[in-house]
Specification:
alpha+beta, seven-stranded antiparallel beta sheet, 6 helices
Length: 261
């Protein structure tokens, strides 16, 4: 296995020249997916590829062949086993066919310690697409972390909870997992966990969740491509970190298998 540099970038299957990065750097019109590779395998690979294809059709009116993307990822990895991989899709020039940029960095893992969230007044536009140009998400996440929190919890004007800045969030109501029913990105880890909960016979549902009602939930957790972690606090409201259902959900998540690239 070769040593993984801090960053490796390939554009449409070849090393990207500096001038070729001008378009994606200067334009926010595009989309991406992010994944963690372990042993050259990815959880939910088919879901990542389907996400990329659907967003490419919606934004650019073109299909994106999943087998091609898979090969581009494999090529960018070379013989690296573990990595963080991000696949960006953008149009290099007006009217041009979409290009695929694959970046490879060292692997990352979500902290397993309970996470503290602070609510912020923001809902992502076109939330169902993992689009580029997330200035507000970065701004609010930086602000809450400066205040001693781990993640921002995005909320609407009426207190409706949607998602974290870079995570999905869920709450526990008795023996049921509750995902907010609001504009949000269907994260790959969230989709995989729902499937795993169904298989394990643990109920889940989508429902309106408001900040005023958070005290009625017994526990909470968040997910993204880096993993899963319990939530210990939202603003000044404490959630018990050792809720049995949350512990069981974390255990189930860890059993989700990965797909070979």
């Amino acid at each position: 296995m070769t040593d993984l540099p801090d960053l490796r970038i390939e554009l449409d299957g070849r090393p990207a020249a500096a001038e070729e990065l001008f378009a994606p750097l200067m334009s926010n019109y595009g989309h991406f997916t992010a994944m963690q590779v372990r042993g050259r395998a990815v959880r939910g690979l088919d879901l990542h590829l389907a996400r990329l294809d659907a967003a490419t059709r919606e934004l650019f009116g073109a299909d994106l062949d999943g087998s091609r993307v898979r090969e581009l990822i494999r090529q960018a990895l070379a013989d690296t086993e573990d990595a963080s991989v991000r696949v960006n899709v953008f149009r290099p020039a007006p009217g041009a066919a979409p290009s695929v940029l694959v970046s490879v960095r060292p692997p990352t893992t979500m902290p397993t310690t309970p996470q503290a969230l602070r609510t912020v007044p923001y809902l992502r536009p076109v939330a169902h697409i993992k689009h580029t140009g997330g200035f507000a998400q970065g701004y609010f996440r930086d602000q809450v972390q400066r205040a001693g929190f781990d993640e921002a919890l995005l909320t609407g004007p009426d207190g409706t909870v949607s998602e974290g800045a870079i995570t999905n969030v869920a709450f526990t109501d008795g023996g049921t997992v509750v995902w907010p029913d609001a504009p949000m990105l269907d994260g790959i880890s969230m989709l995989l966990l729902r499937q795993a909960l169904d298989k394990a016979g643990l109920p889940w549902r989508r429902a309106s969740v408001r900040t005023a009602d958070l005290a009625s939930y017994g526990g909470a957790f968040l997910t993204n491509s880096q993993g899963i972690a319990p939530i210990s606090r939202v603003d000044e409201l404490d959630f018990p970190a050792d809720v049995l259902l949350v512990d069981e959900v974390v255990r189930i998540f860890q059993t989700i298998p990965a797909d070979a690239l």
